[in-house]
Structure formats: C-alpha cells, structure tokens
Design goal:
One of its GO terms (biological process) is L-valine import across plasma membrane. This protein has about 280 residues and is of the alpha/beta class. It has helices spanning about 45-50, 80-85, 105-110, 115-120, 125-130, 130-150, 165-180, 195-215, 225-230, 250, 255-260, 265-275, and strands spanning about 5-15, 20-30, 35-40, 60-65, 70-75, 90, 185-190, 215-220, 235-240, 240-245. The structure holds adenosine-5'-triphosphate (ATP).
C-alpha cells in the first residue's frame, strides 16, 4: 500500500451460496479524501461495506487499513467490534440506527462509551471517583457539544433523537460516528430521503469533515448531486465487479458507466450524466 492510501481492497470476493455479490474487486481509498462507491441497485456496494466493516467475512481477498503511524491492519481477519475499536473505522447505515428514546446529546455520549470505560479502568471506583475519569467525561461532553454545534443541533441537545426531523437524524448519525474519532468514516447512502436543501447541507458537512479534520471518507451514495460535488475519487460497480473509476468528470463521461445505469433505471442514468454539471 502506498503511504497516501488509508484503505486497500484487493481481489475482494463475497459469495452467498450460489450468488457472487462481489467478485475480484480491487480499489484504494486515499487518506484525507472522499471516495465514493456508486453503481446501480444490486451492484454489490453494501456488501463491500459489510466486508470492510466486519459484518461479513469475505469469501476471498484482503482489506488493509493503514494508520497514520504506519500500522497496517488486516480488516478481513477482525470482527465488527474490533474493526470499530482497533482499526477505528466508523460507519452509518442505510436505515437510521440512533437510539430514538435517548436525547441527541446522549446518543453522542454513548458513542464514546469505550473511551469512558477505558478511563474508568473498568472499575466502579474509577467511574465514581477517579480524576482521570472525570477528565475523560468532560472531554466526552466537550466533543459531543462540538459535534452538536457542527451539525447545527446544539439547540436540540436535550430532545429525543426520535423526535428530530429526518434530515437532522441523518446528520446526528454522522456526528455520532465522528465522536468515535475514526480514521475512516464509512457512510451508506447518507443522502437517502433528504430534500435538496438537506442534501446541500450534507455535502457541506462532509466537505468540512475532510477539509477541517482530515478524516478519510468512503461513501455509498445514489444522489449524484452529492457524489459529483464532493468526491475526490469514484469507484463504479456493476454486477459485483468494478467497471470504472476516476474523478467525477471521468466517471460521468465514461460510456461503460452510462451503459450500466441505462440498463437499469432511466432516472438514475440521467442523474449520472447530469450530476455535478
Ligand atoms: N446476505 C445476503 N444473502 C444473499 N444475497 C445477498 C446478501 N446480501 C446481498 N446479497 C445479494 O448481493 C447482491 C448485491 O447486493 P448489495 O446490497 O450489496 O447491492 P447494492 O449495490 O448495495 O444495492 P443497493 O444500491 O440497492 O443498496 C444482490 O444480488 C443481493 O441480493
């Protein structure tokens, strides 16, 4: 892996019985960049995400995550918990998975549970008395507050997450993932269900995460206005294989990409050709 790469996927294959959902897929995501994985419905994008984040064990191939300090972690050998904790890969899902009965702030505090438990020394005494825990708790509250501000939800801190508007919940999910201070943020269709104004706010948020914090982002997205506006690099899949990759402009003009989308849904094809222009 080159030093500029945070993620290297090499010959990834995932079979479900007779179905080959992903076949021999290789691509890389660069550090401090936004990489998008696109393709028509059923192309295999979510399966790739599930392999990267440890929800599936790949049938073949390797997935390497390279940290800033030079450590390289073989993700295909770890389960989802270790991938989140050791490899520092955070993800969101197509369907919102907040704790709806907890407040917005509480959702962001729960995300920092691991760090807080570590600070407690995993003891009751640590939880109730140790200064190191109180410091960690203050830091956790500061981080959560900072994220509520960044996603424009500071005034909703004490409202139940389930009562927030859909677009607000989507941004809160991203804030929750960011509170784990990930090396790689994986977002599965973050713009799904958003209106044009909310999509624009999402693009702005993701660009600020890249530009201000230098977090690497991998995203699956069908909303081409978002993809074409914010991506540094796009990987296009169809029927489990990579059919193209490149800059937004290269991908948009690639006849193989247009043909893949034309083969499925006219609206999606039109969106790829028009997106970002
Ligand atoms: N757990 C599973 N068991 C069996 N088949 C699966 C499983 N998960 C995915 N598949 C199949 O793998 C293929 C790729 O699906 P996947 O959900 O990865 O595509 P996708 O590109 O994310 O699609 P979409 O854009 O619609 O979310 C599909 O044919 C799907 O039916």
């Amino acid at each position: 892996m080159s030093g500029d790469q945070i993620l290297g996927v090499d010959r990834l294959t995932m079979r479900f019985g007779g179905i080959v959902a992903v076949q021999d897929l290789s691509f890389a995501a660069e550090r401090k960049k936004i990489t998008a994985l696109i393709g028509p419905n059923g192309a295999g994008k979510t399966t790739v995400f599930n392999c990267i984040t440890g929800f599936y064990k790949p049938s073949g191939g390797t997935i390497r995550l390279s940290h800033d300090d030079g450590r390289v972690i073989a993700l295909e050998r770890l389960n989802d918990f270790r991938i989140a904790k050791q490899a520092k890969v955070a993800r969101t899902f197509q369907n919102i998975r907040l704790f709806p009965g907890m407040t917005a702030l509480e959702n962001l505090m729960v995300a920092q549970h691991n760090a807080l438990m570590r600070a407690s020394g995993f003891t009751l005494l640590g939880l109730v008395g140790a200064p190191v825990y109180r410091d960690a708790e203050k830091r956790a509250i500061d981080l959560a507050t900072d994220w509520l501000r960044r996603v424009n939800l500071l005034d909703r801190a004490d409202d139940a997450a389930g009562n927030l508007a859909y677009g607000d919940q989507r941004r809160l999910e991203i804030a929750r993932a960011m509170c784990t201070e990930p090396a790689l943020l994986c977002l599965d269709e973050p713009a799904a269900g958003l209106n044009a104004r909310e999509s624009a706010a999402l693009s702005e948020l993701l660009l600020s995460i890249r530009n201000e914090l230098g977090t690497s982002i991998l995203l699956i997205e069908h909303d081409m206005s978002v993809v074409m506006e914010i991506s540094d690099h796009i990987v296009v899949m169809d029927h489990g294989v990579k059919i193209a990759q490149g800059s937004p402009r290269e991908v948009r003009d690639d006849p193989k990409v247009i043909a893949a989308y034309l083969g499925t849904d006219e609206d999606e094809a039109a969106a790829v050709m028009e997106g970002g222009s």
